[in-house]
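Run log // design_07
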């Protein structure tokens, strides 16, 4: 499917809703009295990251939440939407954009204030609602609109899974004792050595993240978390912006082309179809392409780092790869 890139304008927008100044809070997100923290499948995006969001929306659908993170009137809505998106386990990503710091986006989307919701699918923005929704409207968005966005994305060939960023559990209960305890226990802090790589991944610079994780591994080759995250970053750097339909058509049209099969296996991995990715490459070698086993082996070794080490699919795929090699 040809992707039509959406480009934000460059003229300045009008003033942000001044009413938000009356409801301004100074607490940091995720702390008592502050905005709900990002995490899981919810990210905070900037104006500079918008083109990356557009590109990523060719792989998985994105819910754009235009808000002001210091306006406490928006916190309950942000919490409900964030919880709903996280409950969908990567079927879509929620990108929160602070419009007080994004005048070009305000102009491009013709926003008069916050909040506003848009879907971004295949680079195309789709308006959902402008202004504060009622409780009934919010529930309708959660129960009906979000699943419909996933269906629309699938019809457009956008079937990948959004990357999980961690730190979601308990994050949207900031200020509540139980929520704070859950957040503390659920996700370990990002290791200091990983911070730069993690930041680059959050911003959609997957190639940069992979290089940063490589530096971590040079210092500590036994850092299994860095190895896993590097493998994920390499996968997304290669194929996060691929046109899913074109990749699958190319693989079907070129069954003997190892690069075409590697490309579609990447798409399967991004979409969470791990067994399909393993089987595709192993079946390719078994079908008389043993001369291509080395690039297949290298790609599979990278894939093997991504699932949980106890995943039975790993053991089966490793055994089969060993059999094909000898």
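design_07 sequence
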């Amino acid at each position: 499917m040809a992707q039509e890139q959406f480009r934000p304008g460059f003229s300045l927008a009008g003033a942000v809703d001044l009413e938000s100044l009356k409801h301004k809070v100074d607490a940091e997100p995720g702390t008592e009295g502050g905005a709900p923290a990002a995490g899981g499948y919810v990210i905070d995006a900037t104006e500079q990251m918008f083109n990356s969001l557009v590109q990523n929306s060719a792989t998985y659908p994105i819910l754009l939440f235009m808000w002001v993170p210091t306006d406490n009137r928006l916190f309950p809505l942000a919490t409900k939407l964030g919880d709903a998106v996280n409950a969908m386990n990567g079927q879509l990503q929620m990108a929160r954009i602070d419009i007080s710091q994004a005048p070009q986006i305000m102009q491009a989307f013709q926003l008069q204030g916050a909040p506003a919701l848009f879907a971004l699918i295949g680079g195309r923005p789709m308006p959902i609602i402008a202004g504060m929704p009622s409780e009934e409207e919010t529930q309708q968005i959660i129960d009906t609109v979000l699943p419909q966005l996933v269906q629309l994305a699938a019809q457009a060939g956008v079937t990948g899974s959004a990357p999980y960023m961690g730190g979601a559990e308990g994050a949207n209960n900031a200020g509540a004792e139980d929520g704070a305890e859950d957040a503390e226990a659920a996700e370990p802090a990002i290791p200091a050595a990983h911070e730069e790589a993690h930041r680059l991944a959050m911003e959609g610079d997957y190639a940069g993240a992979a290089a940063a994780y490589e530096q971590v591994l040079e210092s500590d080759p036994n850092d299994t978390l860095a190895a896993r995250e590097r493998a994920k970053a390499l996968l997304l750097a290669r194929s996060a912006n691929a046109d899913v339909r074109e990749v699958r058509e190319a693989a079907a049209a070129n069954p003997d082309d190892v690069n075409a099969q590697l490309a579609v296996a990447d798409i399967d991995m991004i979409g969470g179809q791990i067994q399909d990715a393993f089987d595709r490459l192993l079946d390719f070698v078994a079908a008389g392409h043993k001369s291509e086993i080395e690039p297949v082996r290298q790609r599979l070794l990278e894939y093997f780092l991504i699932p949980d080490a106890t995943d039975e699919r790993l053991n089966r795929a490793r055994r089969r790869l060993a059999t094909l090699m000898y």
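The CA atoms of residues 59 and 158 lie 5 Å apart.
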